[in-house]
Amino acid sequence: MAFDLAFIWAGLIAFAVLAYVVLDGFDLGVGILFPALKDSREKDLAMNSVAPVWDGNETWLVLGGGGLFAVFPLAYAVVMPALYAPIIAMLIGLIFRGVAFEYRWRTHRAQHFWDKAFFGGSVLAAFAQGVALGALVQGIEVENRAYAGGNWDWLTPFSILTGVAVVVGYALLGATWLMMKTEGAVNDHARRLAWPTGIATLGLIGAVSAITPFLDNEYLSRWFSGWTMAFTGIVPLLIAGCGWLLFTGLKSGHDTRPFLAALGMFVLSFAGIGISFYPNIVPPSLTIWEAAAPDSSLWFVLVGAAVLIPMILAYTAYAYWVFRGKIDPDEGYH
């Protein structure tokens, strides 16, 4: 039986990226919402809600980036020069955020500085991820198996739009996460924040979706011809359904449904991007088979992934199971 190793690895990397987005998205969202929280007690509670899982969530980013380097080296070699600036900005944001997470508990005098660093790092990381996504969607110029574009090709009105969309979307995930994990004043505050962020997220998804098919003729043909045209109607309807679940959950006082609905919006948006890209890994011209390493390398790394990925999934599931339920305001991260 023949295995399409490049296709299998494309699926694994896509899964790792999606896992990172949905898991790290809400704790970045908590940081984005930090200035909107009322006082130090609310901020402590919000940070405690992500303390047990935030660093584990970033494991998926390492897996996605490392997997791209190992199994699609040509794609890595093209994408990195094209997106150096947003990727470095993302890493700087994540570093500031991680340092702030630890240091704000070690000092009272400078706590306001680390609060700002936590917020700024979260916004910078989220915005840089969105800009990188927008730059990838709009296409990367490739000639002779190398990046052929300019230093500033990544910075366009569309990439700025996607950057803003990711920041707002993560803020929605953060608000709905706080609703699910807290009670009392923080829960009520998060519910109020979820309304405008939810409305803005749906509007930005609509704006990005309206522009995307006109960025490249290949996107246009995939969206409006052939069997993939069915998804052009189905995915927006499902996103609208998630929006309905989100707002009815907010209105009726549900704590879990809005978070699951927000996650559904992200998963469906990710699926829409995947449908637009496939079979390219670097649009508009570099396919997963052209970018893949030799089969011997793919088999070698797949054996390691077959052991590593179940372990990461088990650890992640265990961590969320142990720290399930609402946060006790009198106990937390120290």
Task: Give a verbal description of the structure.
The chain is built from 14 helices and four strands. With 334 residues, the chain is mostly helical. It has one domain: Formate dehydrogenase/DMSO reductase fold. The strands form two sheets. A two-stranded antiparallel sheet has the order 1-2. β1 (142-143) and β2 (146-147) form a beta hairpin. α7 (111-138) packs across α8. It is globular and about 60 Å long. The chain starts with a helix and ends in a 12-residue tail after the last helix.
Can you summarize the main beta sheet?
2 strands, antiparallel
Number of helices: 14
Helix content: over 70%
Helix/strand/pairing class, anyone?
A: mainly alpha
Radius of gyration, CA atoms, in whole angstroms: 20 Å
Instruction: Give the number of domains.
Output: 1
Topology:
Elements: H1 5-32, H2 40-50, H3 54-57, H4 59-71, H5 73-82, H6 84-103, H7 111-138, E1 142-143, E2 146-147, H8 157-181, H9 184-211, H10 217-224, H11 229-252, H12 257-277, E3 280-282, E4 286-287, H13 288-291, H14 295-322
